[in-house]
Amino acid sequence: MAILLFGTVNTPMVFAQFNSAGGVDKEGTWYLGEGLKQGDFFSYNLCHVDYKECAQFSMDLWIKGDTKSGTETKWLAEAVVYDGNKVVVGEIELGKLAPEPTGGSEELGVYRGAFKSSVAWLSAFATADTGQSGKGPKAFKAASWGKIGNIGGEQVLPSALETIKVQSGTWDTVVMSWKTGGYSSKVWIVDEFPFPVKAKTYTHVSEGIPPPEYIFELIEYKQNVQSDPFVGIVPTADTFSAQGCDTNFEKTEDLKKPTANYDYQVHVFYGPDQPTEGCPMEWLIKFISKYDETEFLNQVQFDVLVVDDNLTPLRSIAQDEGRQYLYSPSGQYILDMIVKEKPGKSNYVIWIYGLAPEGIVPSTKSDYLEVPLQIYSKDGSTSTNTMPTIQPKLNEKIPDWIKNNAGWWADGSIDDKSFIQGIQFLIQKEIIVIPPTSQGSSSSNQIPDWIKNNAGWWADGAIDDSSFIQGLQFLIKEGIMTISSPKELADKPIDTFGNY
Length: 500
Description:
Blueprint: E1 29-30, E2 41-48, E3 57-69, E4 72-83, E5 86-94, E6 101-104, H1 109-116, E7 138-139, E8 146-147, E9 155-166, E10 169-180, E11 183-189, E12 198-202, E13 212-222, H2 236-242, E14 253-258, E15 265-271, E16 280-288, E17 300-307, E18 313-316, H3 317-320, E19 326-328, E20 332-338, E21 344-355, E22 367-375, E23 389-390, H4 400-410, H5 416-428, E24 432-433, H6 449-460, H7 465-477, H8 486-490
Antiparallel strand pairs: 1-7, 2-3, 2-13, 3-4, 4-5, 5-6, 8-9, 9-10, 10-11, 11-12, 12-13, 14-15, 15-16, 16-20, 17-18, 17-19, 17-21, 21-22, 23-24
Helix pairs in contact: 4-5, 4-6, 6-7
């Protein structure tokens, strides 16, 4: 994957013409998709404000050939996205008259949207379609190609001829530009080349410094690529699934609290509900005014840290991404990360440096919100010693009635309640140790036959302690059995036989 470099160096402009009405001294026309053909390969670095507030990613696109969608013939492109630690592989369908993404693999959805709203954005003004509702090719000499849709929107116009150097090479371009809040947004296009080669644009704001709307750069271009260039690239989701990670999770856990010094409110959503060592995790962090819960803060400089008990940083997510700090222009930030911490308790902290534009040191004092998390191993344990055990204390014999209970429960001589009371007794006396297991909920109280068979076999000595406890863990996870902790049980009177 190429390194993302938006700070490209421009060679001296070979010719420039500026006209308040627009238009440059160049013959010909252009439209999005001009000259696109089978075998073309493009590699872009890009960002869009609607995807993680212009967090940068790379997209490689190979035009494989034609595909039928109903009665319409489209381009079928294979694509690979490199997004931080994540690799996404799939297909994208592109229209023939306007090569906007119109369908394809579900996992590429957000990236298709970013591509359409950035690299393919000029299709709103110039397409091959000259028929009804078609824009048609636009002349370089035209005073304007159209108008931005927002209220008071500016004209999009050819404003200059410029030779630029980007990672993919040196290009003779026409600069398409428009004003956004006093700032000039620009897209660089090339005659007879299907997509723009560079862009730097800004969102429309009524005051203040407008944040980027989208930025992109063509980092590689090849023609006549006939064999699949993506052979052997494995999606990260497949890799994590093969390692036993949950990759199909929602951000269902949430925490909403003021920061330690009450300077801000932070609302955090995260998932999965059991963060697992070596597996992906996703956060949605909302920074809110302490005076108004409906008001999002902006230009937030922050980091997500893992700290020790003295708040000494052990890990910085910003540094993991090669950045000094994380930044949220709008006050809402989506964070993808890999859990590297060992099973057990971990102290995560959202550390807010302050509110200031990127590159400017905030003048306010830092504040923070602690987010303590329980980290799990892939087998569901929260301890590095994942083997469940049944172990009598020193010089203490396991009472005979324990295995008798298991055998009687297996053959139906005692009911479920009596058996569970016996298990509670074992936990309280720390004779049986079950790795911390997330309690589930179930509308069924039906205990599978294999669980009772396990209990009977354990009572007879046919299976070991670990196999028996795995059955108990299953009941807890499914919500069929609710097990109290030793501390909770310590407050309850219980006799020698596990009765309350």
